[in-house]
Design goal:
With 177 residues, the chain is of the alpha+beta class. The chain has helices at residues 17-28, 30-33, 51-59, 104-118, 134-142; strands at 8-11, 44-45, 63-70, 73-82, 87-95, 124-130, 146-153, 162-163, 169-176.
Length: 177
């Protein structure tokens, strides 16, 4: 079994866009995603992200997708976006369902927080999580994040899927870096 010490990290390039989209979609949506604990398959239909949207993120100023690699294969990824007021937004944290429970998500979170602090100069990491995803919220609470109390309605758009349940919403979480 691979351990986090075998992980290598790098930033994504356009050549990685298809693999990233496939990974993110496999982790969050569809029947295959139900093997992992981070699935949204019971809440949303459709794809989570397109290859075009991944390319847009990769090429947008102040954005980076960090990759976790095992034997040069993408095992996980996370999107970071530099914001105003020394904040960094974390999103799209994904770990291949075949590699979950091996502390890769934790390693990606640690790398993200270091990157945000040391490269972007951020002092706060922020994220939004679907409010109905209690197990995910609990994971972030254990990692030192706090719920801000701010909520945002889930707005359907072309690359984020179609809700299967009513009244989906996001909660905001932050952590001081």
């Amino acid at each position: 079994m691979e351990h986090t010490k075998e992980l290598k990290f790098r930033t994504a390039t356009d050549d990685d866009a298809e693999s990233i989209a496939n990974l993110v979609n496999s982790v969050y949506r569809g029947e295959g995603a139900k093997k992992g604990w981070t699935t949204e398959a019971d809440l949303l239909d459709g794809i989570r992200i397109t290859i075009e949207k991944v390319n847009e993120i990769i090429n947008a100023p102040g954005n980076v997708i960090l990759l976790a690699l095992i034997n040069n294969k993408i095992a996980g990824c996370v999107h970071l976006e530099k914001k105003k007021s020394r904040r960094c937004h974390l999103g799209m944290l994904s770990v291949d369902v075949n590699y979950q429970n091996r502390k890769i998500g934790r390693a990606l979170m640690d790398k993200s927080e270091d990157y945000a602090k040391n490269v972007f100069g951020s002092s706060v990491m922020e994220m939004k999580v679907i409010g109905q995803r209690r197990e995910l919220i609990d994971y972030y609470l254990r990692r030192g994040y706090k719920i801000t109390g701010d909520k945002e309605p889930f707005i359907v758009n072309f690359h984020f899927g179609e809700p299967k349940v009513k009244d989906l919403y996001f909660v905001y979480m932050v952590k001081e870096l």
